[in-house]
Automatic annotation (TrEMBL):
Coiled-coil annotated spans: none
Protein name, entry field: CARD domain-containing protein
Domain CARD span(s) in chain numbering: 1-58
One Pfam family it belongs to: CARD
GO BP terms, alphabetized: regulation of apoptotic process
Source organism superkingdom: Eukaryota
Length: 110
């Protein structure tokens, strides 16, 4: 189910993806699931350009209203595992093998 349906619906109307009548029909649906289904059906019937605009609107709306990372980036930051991001960063310090290194081969990894 889409979140922030009213915001997404208003943006789809403002961008000319959905007509006034389509918006009224979607708003008349009883629950969020039916509204989401109707939005998807309406947008898909309009073709590729409408679908791309819909995806752009979802992306922008999510960034503005949630104020938190998307599930994909949440997974990458370790938030789902409880590992703080700071613990996942590292600093590599090369250790010289000889007293005056001049080449990469004169260092060892740490």
């Amino acid at each position: 189910e889409l979140q922030n349906l009213s915001v997404i619906l208003e943006n789809l109307y403002q961008k000319g993806v959905l007509s006034d009548e389509e918006v009224r029909n979607i708003q008349a649906e009883r629950d969020g699931y039916d509204k989401t289904r109707k939005i998807l059906d309406s947008v898909m019937k309009k073709g590729e350009a409408a679908c791309y605009e819909f995806l752009r609107i979802i992306h922008v709306t999510r960034k503005r209203t949630l104020g938190r990372p998307t599930p994909l980036s949440e997974k990458n930051t370790g938030a789902s595992t409880g590992i703080p991001q700071l613990w996942k960063t590292s600093c590599v310090v090369p250790v010289p093998k000889i007293s005056h290194p001049k080449d990469l081969n004169h260092f060892r990894p740490t």
